[in-house]
Amino acid sequence: MAEKMTDEEWRAFVSDGTRTGKLSTVRADGSPHVAPIWFLLDGDELVFNTGKDTVKGRNLARDGRVALCVDDDRPPFHFVVLNGRARLSEDLGELRLWATRIAARYMGEERAEEYGARNGVPGELLVRVGIDKVVAVKNMAA
């Protein structure tokens, strides 16, 4: 039977391994845009980077509302949906630091600097989302 995850459980779940998040942003016409992202949790914030001129970058600059879904598509199935509002920064020091940390999670420590240098450059945005709402369910098919 499905059950809610505790705060500790959902944080561990979204931070486990190299699970990507599916980020939903709001287009200018009000329709949703969904894209996979690499991310980290930093306390009560979701952190990721994206290009300033990408669809999600433009959407976030105009309307900071986001939803992020992280799931496990294997039985017994689990998912977490985080909702919040994004703040954008172009501070190159912070951008490079977080791009490197995110890369360490997804590409490994041995390639973190390489990806941090690639993604921590002018034209990229550091995105911090204050998490306002969490829906976290485990054992959907148990």
UniProtKB/TrEMBL annotation:
InterPro entries: F420-binding_dom_put, F420H2_bilvrd_red/Heme_oxyg, Pyridox_Oxase_N, Split_barrel_FMN-bd
Keyword Oxidoreductase: yes
Domain Pyridoxamine 5'-phosphate oxidase N-terminal: 7-121
GO cellular component: cytosol
Record PANTHER family: F420H(2)-DEPENDENT BILIVERDIN REDUCTASE, HEME OXYGENASE HI_0854-RELATED
Protein name: PPOX class F420-dependent oxidoreductase
Pfam families: PNPOx_N (PF01243)
Keyword line: Oxidoreductase
Native source organism of the sequence: Streptomyces actinomycinicus
MF (Gene Ontology): coenzyme F420 binding; oxidoreductase activity, acting on the CH-CH group of donors
NCBIfam families in the cross-refs: Rv1155_F420
SUPFAM superfamilies given in the database record: FMN-binding split barrel
